[in-house]
From TrEMBL, chains A, B, C, D:
Active-site residues (renumbered): C167
Gene transcribed to yield this protein: argC
UniProt family annotation: Belongs to the NAGSA dehydrogenase family. Type 1 subfamily.
Keyword Signal (UniProt): no
EC code(s) of this entry: 1.2.1.38
Protein name, UniProt field: N-acetyl-gamma-glutamyl-phosphate reductase
Entry-linked HAMAP family: ArgC_type1 (MF_00150)
InterPro entries per the UniProt record, alphabetical: AGPR, AGPR_AS, AGPR_dimerisation_dom, AGPR_type-1, NAD(P)-bd_dom_sf, Semialdehyde_DH_NAD-bd
GO molecular function per UniProt: N-acetyl-gamma-glutamyl-phosphate reductase activity; NAD binding; NADP+ binding
Lineage start: Bacteria, Pseudomonadati, Pseudomonadota, Gammaproteobacteria, Alteromonadales
Amino acid sequence: MTKAISDSNNSIQKVAIIGASGYAGAELVGLLSNHSQAHICHLVVSENSSSEGKLFSDLHGRFKSICDLPLVAFSSAWFDEYAADLDAVFFATPHDFSADWAQAFLDAGVKVFDLSGGFRLKDASDYPKYYGFEHADKNALAKAIYGLAEWQHDDIANANLVAVPGCYPTASLLSLKPLTVNNLVVENSLVVVNGISGVTGAGRNASLATNFNEVSLKAYNVLQHRHQPEISQEADIAVIFNPHIAPYKRGLLATVTLQLNAGVTSAQVDDAFISAYSDKPLVRLVSSWPEIGNVANTPFADIHWKFDEDKQVVVVSCAIDNVLKGASSQAIQCFNIASGLPSEYSLLNKAV
Amino acid sequence: MTKAISDSNNSIQKVAIIGASGYAGAELVGLLSNHSQAHICHLVVSENSSSEGKLFSDLHGRFKSICDLPLVAFSSAWFDEYAADLDAVFFATPHDFSADWAQAFLDAGVKVFDLSGGFRLKDASDYPKYYGFEHADKNALAKAIYGLAEWQHDDIANANLVAVPGCYPTASLLSLKPLTVNNLVVENSLVVVNGISGVTGAGRNASLATNFNEVSLKAYNVLQHRHQPEISQEADIAVIFNPHIAPYKRGLLATVTLQLNAGVTSAQVDDAFISAYSDKPLVRLVSSWPEIGNVANTPFADIHWKFDEDKQVVVVSCAIDNVLKGASSQAIQCFNIASGLPSEYSLLNKAV
Amino acid sequence: MTKAISDSNNSIQKVAIIGASGYAGAELVGLLSNHSQAHICHLVVSENSSSEGKLFSDLHGRFKSICDLPLVAFSSAWFDEYAADLDAVFFATPHDFSADWAQAFLDAGVKVFDLSGGFRLKDASDYPKYYGFEHADKNALAKAIYGLAEWQHDDIANANLVAVPGCYPTASLLSLKPLTVNNLVVENSLVVVNGISGVTGAGRNASLATNFNEVSLKAYNVLQHRHQPEISQEADIAVIFNPHIAPYKRGLLATVTLQLNAGVTSAQVDDAFISAYSDKPLVRLVSSWPEIGNVANTPFADIHWKFDEDKQVVVVSCAIDNVLKGASSQAIQCFNIASGLPSEYSLLNKAV
Amino acid sequence: MTKAISDSNNSIQKVAIIGASGYAGAELVGLLSNHSQAHICHLVVSENSSSEGKLFSDLHGRFKSICDLPLVAFSSAWFDEYAADLDAVFFATPHDFSADWAQAFLDAGVKVFDLSGGFRLKDASDYPKYYGFEHADKNALAKAIYGLAEWQHDDIANANLVAVPGCYPTASLLSLKPLTVNNLVVENSLVVVNGISGVTGAGRNASLATNFNEVSLKAYNVLQHRHQPEISQEADIAVIFNPHIAPYKRGLLATVTLQLNAGVTSAQVDDAFISAYSDKPLVRLVSSWPEIGNVANTPFADIHWKFDEDKQVVVVSCAIDNVLKGASSQAIQCFNIASGLPSEYSLLNKAV
């Protein structure tokens, strides 16, 4: 693949963000504005978006003077004119858009980091059930790499199409995988994942459900949320997933309860987490139950657990920022890994 | 006026609420459900409302089992069939609806308590400027009584058409009038009213502006808010009105700064407030700066002031619940007064 | 028992509230101020409280002009002078105070409604472990009736000492008991109760942990919360209880996940809830996942459930106001039942 | 002044933060951790602080792995051992500590950036009235430079002792000074500054007033807040300052109302702001009323104004993050300027 490079520093990658009007897109813009190895060439919105032609910072006033690029509308013509000159594209788009367009970017030599759910589920037959559409590109789906940065490093390093994990799955899998990969969990036992998300998880839109006055704590989509199969797939264990929304803006907590095999010791549980994360700078094993206030606006995942030896039950809780570690900063981790950079590159000193 | 009375207790008034889907309408339903001298006959929504046919408690789950009446759509046919049998109607409607329909209800012998702005401004020429429409009924406008319950008791007692004050004007006027009616304020001086409202003040609707994630503290409509002429009209003094929205649900604070005439004493200021409100059970003269937390979900107005004798400046602050004292409970006060009941009747033991 | 009755209406009961400075105590005052069959004679605070001598409404400005009684300090002298003339006393006190003083009131012929945890656990040996003190009155403990109003009606009706349930246990047990009493749950299976409470659950006090800026969503006391044995005791089933605190003031949600026996049908699950609650006016079986916004400041419990027939798993969620149904309004239910009144008497039209 | 320089890069300055346990101190740590021309040598807390010996990140979990330095206690011995080796010290301390210790650091050749109020008021006699203590060092007070970064650049560049402005004064003065320095305001007219701050403004402490459940919108310290003389001093105009606290964590809004001289035009007003700030990268003249959500967690000040030509009244509103532009990031601006760096150096890519 050859790219026309205008920069003198030829390691700087030219990127576009498709879907820059939403919260995940906006954070991508902020993170990439502060990334010395990436240059934002285009901010793109959907074809009929009312945001077309506005400045990014008109929509997201927080970023005024950080990034004042205009928002352009996606179209085939736009793709034909600009796509081939890119090194990477980030999709913060509807799920079916990703499914429809990922291969075209790949064919143009552009790496794709997809923050939608369009490439997360391996079983194409789950798409009609959980996403409401028939997946348009089962070939691309088969090639996509699940981008849980702390667990799929080598696959991501070689990937051209990365399915950036969902917010709940990120916190849930970071909690579950140390236990499941070490075979500590009783087979076929009930595994309960309770998730609680801030309202940014519902997206940037006009709806009565997200009206300030209407939002209050409640469960939703219990037993039918599309993140349930994603968690089960990647943890390789059936889970019951109970998502909740709570009245705050950013941050997500997953609290997981599991029955461990007879004879599993507290030390084995501790070892499972320590060995998984001691060399992962964006996962912090904290000494008390993690709180949203410590991870909001950061790329970190904070994890704590407690094991009841009488009952052989462990409870694990993981806190992340749903828009960062649960979306945009994890996408940057994937981009970094795929670019040969450290996973956390640029993320600890983020733009406002 | 003769009404067909089916109730054995002929003092119970038959009422309807037009606009029962919004926040003010919902509180009216709650308050009237707990009012022993009123019986809710109809809950009405606008002609093309998506709420038509639903139960009131489907929209406002808080009131489930308190009031489960269906929402019916307003129409001329509805009016012809049901209006004449009512004793009173509450409008929690768009401003122009009130202007259009008040006289018809009056002609049918129904008292009108209008929570919209349709009858608040005396000068009809202000309607195009501040409300965006030409007032359709200048005759009715001339007859309407401004319903600031603590100040217009006798007028309200004899009124058939009451313009229930706006939320900001209620808190502002309760602060200003003791000073202006006693002629304590320097003529033509700058009078600054800073208002801060919770997000319910923006109504129950689907908009990006009221999305939970988008709401934060800011000024809005400064120097052009429609409550500025309403405050000036009723206080009989020009004011600068700076409204703000802040990230909480219910409650409104007005903080007013005025230059008092040379020679006015602290005792005169105190007397002005004490004489105005010592016999008003829903106005509490509190000993520290009033706070929203003490008035939210109550019909009270809390007032405190401080006078700087060096500068002859007084600052007055008044806190109310914008949906209750700033709308629905004040409407009930007006209804009570017009019905010969004490102003605060039923309000201190409100339904949930 | 004979009481000197000064009221002409001899059905009005003379009550005192011990612990009127906290949130549960304050709500008791509000509820009893609006209760036509109760008369508040005394508001009492602990012996060395800084609140002694202040007016109740100085501490709780919301209730100014609703209740302006002074706060008096508890002491043996106070008890000797006033206790015997009471009909009922409400304890919103430290757990050990209840344990120490309940029998003395009982001996004086005063019914005791204890909102502390002092009489909730049947096994006295659990007190050192979960409450940090040796229970001082095991005789009284043996006689205390657990006051889950919808399930212990007949016992409460005949009780002199009622242990009003904790907030988490109330929501959890209302969710669990329809399933456990019908033997639908797999024996020895993992039962996970996730609880989320607003910050009022942490009490009214000065602490860094409850500082506005420090509060954020997190788990706490997992596997060691004192409500875990209370839930297990009353549901007669071992549970894992994961409590969380979230950044809002009032309301509590319990989301419970259970494995049901093979062959249990959706209809059986539905029947269990409907038969338990169809005649209980303060439990609302709602058609979508219950939300805090609908129960905050109300005496209701809202319940919804979903059954996955493939997995034989049911998830139940119950929302309550932690200070009302989780404390004070349930105490009033118990008082009503013990007084021969309907459980919900006076609660639907509460004081502000 | 000669410093022992161990760094190979001799432009990197060695700094200490006195008062690292509070919110302003914590943000200083975060900002300086990300500042390539500063090296944090010591984090210091007060002599008897319970935080002594803990890690900074134990208090402020958000910064875990960003800065895990221990907190050491200030003492004369500490000063004697470490002060002389520093290039700069930041005081986020009680006001009287600054007054007591600034000169000692200056004598040791250490530049002092004082975030307390210890050196803000020029008139020493104001300290007993507004700060409750007699200023201990009137000589140092006379030398201190007020550090409003956009207005005192040259003075700060040459200063050794900088009084970093208060939060309210920063937002107020950025609003007022363009008008006052251009002599647009009517002499001796009423100038009203309404300020609204989030709860971080009340500091990090255990108090009932800042308990999550107790906080609600209210005015406080009206006509007697210590920022009133500070604003008047630096704007050279008497103001009435009405501070409010509102239920959110970070951010501060000042809304200022002024009477302008007859004949002043809208263009003159616009020019005053544009000429003041067009070359100031951290002040953004925004096209709609500024909102807290756009400045929280950023070093920006957003300003908007509206002029009523009929009344010759202008309203200006300025939003800042009270802990950043109102404290810590403005301190870094001062440090940058005094170090010959651009004012905004390092601030746009801040640590989490």
